[in-house]
C-alpha cells in the first residue's frame, strides 16, 4: 500500500516527440482542476530515460510519478502497470488519458460525480471536442461522445466530426468509452480482468495498441457494468486522424490517412475481439451482418492492402491465447442487452 493514498489515480503514457509537444498544455490543464484529490502516474515508453518528456516532467511537475518502461510497451501493457499501481495504492477509480488533450477546469469533478451516481457504472466517457493544436484553439466539433457499435461489430466514436448540438448526446448511457479519456471503476476492472497465470490483464495485452478500449468496453457490458457519458465533463482532443462518414466508401477513403502500422494493429485486434465473442448467442441478424462485413473487409484487403494478410498468420499463432481469454469471459447479461446499442 502506498503512503500517499488517493481514491483516484490518473495515468498517461509518454513516447518521444509524439507526446512531448503536448505536455506544456496537457499537464497545466490537468493539474489546475477544481477537483484536487488525485495522484498522477505515467509510463514513459520512450527509447531512452533522459528524453524530453522526462526532463519536462522532472523540471515542471516533479510530483508526477513517471517510470521509464525500458522499451515501448504499447498501450495495454503500460496502462495495466499503472492500473495495478492504482489498485495497490488503494484507489477506487483510475482516469486513463491521452496527453494530446486539454480539459475544462471542472472536468475531473464532473467525471467523478458521474461515476459515483450509480455503483454499477464501470466506466465514464467525457464529452470530447476537437482541439486544433496548430492554432491552440478549442472547437465545437465533436471528437467523441463515447464508443458506438453497429450490427457489423464495427466500432466508431459517436458523432465524430459533427458540430455540437444539445440533442446529440441523447441518453447518458453509451456502449463504450474511448481510450483517449475514461474514468474506470477499479472494482469493475477486477471483475472482468483476464488472469494469465502470472498477473491480471485489465486491457488485453494481446492488443499492443488500438481496439483495446472496444474490447474492455465489451467485457464490461457483458459482465453487466454500465458505461455512461458525462455530458458536463468536457475535454478537447487533437486526434491525428478523424473518421469522416460511415458508409463503406467513407470507411475505405478514411484508411488513406492511416499508417500501415495502425492498420495492422487495428486489423489484427478486430479479429482478436471477434474470436473472443464468437460463441455468444447473438441474433441471426447480427451474425449475418458481422459475417458479411468481415467478408467485404477481407476482399478489400486482398485487393488493396494485401500486406495485412500476414496478420492472419499472427492471429493463427494467437488462437490458444484467445481461447483462454474467451473461456474467462464474464457473461452475466443476455447479449440482447448489448444488441440494444447496435445501430
Describe the fold and architecture:
- This protein has 343 residues and is an alpha/beta fold.
- It has 2 domains: 230 residues, Alpha-Beta Complex (Spore Coat Polysaccharide Biosynthesis Protein SpsA, Chain A), CATH 3.90.550; 92 residues, no CATH class.
- It is built from 12 helices and 13 strands.
- The strands form 3 sheets. Strands 1, 2, 3, 4, 5, 6, 7, 10 and 13 form a 9-stranded mixed β-sheet that branches. A two-stranded antiparallel sheet has the order 8-9.
- The longest helix has 21 residues.
- The radius of gyration is 19 Å and the shape is globular.
- The termini are far apart.
Task: Write a compact overview of the structure shown.
The protein is α/β, with parallel strands linked by helices and 343 residues long. It has 2 domains: 8-237, Spore Coat Polysaccharide Biosynthesis Protein SpsA, Chain A; 248-339, no CATH class.
Proportion of strand residues: 15-25%
| Average residue-wise pLDDT | 92
CATH class of the largest domain: Alpha Beta
From the spread of the alpha carbons, the general shape counts as globular
Family: Belongs to the glycosyltransferase 2 family.
Domain Glycosyltransferase 2-like: 13-132
Keywords: Glycosyltransferase, Transferase
Organism: Candidatus Falkowbacteria bacterium RIFCSPHIGHO2_02_FULL_42_9
SSE diagram, text form:
Elements: E1 8-14, H1 16-20, H2 23-31, E2 39-44, H3 52-60, E3 65-68, H4 74-88, E4 93-97, E5 101-103, H5 107-115, E6 121-132, E7 137-144, E8 147-149, E9 155-157, E10 181-185, H6 186-192, E11 194-195, E12 200-201, H7 212-222, E13 226-237, H8 248-254, H9 260-276, H10 284-304, H11 310-327, H12 335-339
Parallel strand pairs: 1-2, 1-4, 2-3, 6-13
Antiparallel strand pairs: 4-10, 5-13, 6-7, 6-10, 8-9, 11-12
Helix pairs in contact: 9-11
Amino acid at each position: 500500500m502506498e503512503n500517499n493514498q488517493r481514491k483516484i489515480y490518473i495515468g498517461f503514457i509518454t513516447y518521444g516527440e509524439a507526446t512531448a509537444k503536448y505536455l506544456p498544455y496537457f499537464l497545466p490543464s490537468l493539474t489546475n482542476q477544481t477537483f484536487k484529490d488525485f495522484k498522477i502516474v505515467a509510463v514513459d515508453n520512450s527509447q531512452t530515460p533522459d528524453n524530453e518528456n522526462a526532463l519536462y516532467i522532472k523540471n515542471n511537475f516533479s510530483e508526477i510519478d513517471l517510470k521509464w518502461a525500458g522499451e515501448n510497451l504499447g498501450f495495454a501493457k503500460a496502462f495495466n502497470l499503472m492500473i495495478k499501481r492504482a489498485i495497490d495504492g488503494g484507489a477506487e477509480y483510475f482516469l486513463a488519458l491521452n496527453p494530446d488533450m486539454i480539459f475544462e477546469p471542472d472536468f475531473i469533478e464532473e467525471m467523478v460525480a458521474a461515476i459515483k451516481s450509480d455503483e454499477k457504472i464501470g466506466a465514464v466517457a467525457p464529452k470530447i471536442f476537437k482541439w486544433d493544436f496548430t492554432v491552440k484553439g478549442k472547437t465545437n466539433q465533436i471528437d467523441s461522445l463515447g464508443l458506438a457499435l453497429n450490427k457489423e461489430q464495427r466500432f466508431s466514436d459517436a458523432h465524430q466530426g459533427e458540430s455540437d448540438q444539445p440533442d446529440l448526446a441523447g441518453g447518458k448511457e453509451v456502449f463504450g468509452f474511448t481510450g483517449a479519456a475514461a474514468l474506470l471503476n477499479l472494482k469493475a476492472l477486477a471483475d472482468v480482468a483476464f488472469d494469465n497465470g502470472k498477473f491480471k490483464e485489465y486491457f488485453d495485452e494481446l492488443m499492443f495498441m488500438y481496439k483495446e478500449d472496444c474490447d474492455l468496453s465489451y467485457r464490461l457490458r457483458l459482465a453487466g457494468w454500465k458505461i455512461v457519458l458525462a455530458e458536463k465533463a468536457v475535454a478537447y482532443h487533437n486526434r491525428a486522424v478523424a473518421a469522416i462518414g460511415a458508409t463503406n466508401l467513407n470507411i475505405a477513403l478514411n484508411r488513406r490517412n492511416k499508417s500501415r502500422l495502425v492498420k495492422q494493429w487495428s486489423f489484427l485486434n478486430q479479429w482478436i475481439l471477434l474470436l473472443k465473442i464468437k460463441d455468444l448467442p447473438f441474433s441471426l441478424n447480427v451474425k449475418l451482418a458481422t459475417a458479411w462485413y468481415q467478408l467485404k473487409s477481407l476482399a478489400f484487403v486482398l485487393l488493396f492492402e494485401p500486406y495485412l494478410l500476414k496478420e492472419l498468420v499472427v492471429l493463427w499463432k494467437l488462437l490458444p491465447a484467445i481461447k483462454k481469454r474467451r473461456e474467462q469471459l464474464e457473461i452475466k447479461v443476455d447479449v440482447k442487452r448489448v444488441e440494444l446499442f447496435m445501430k
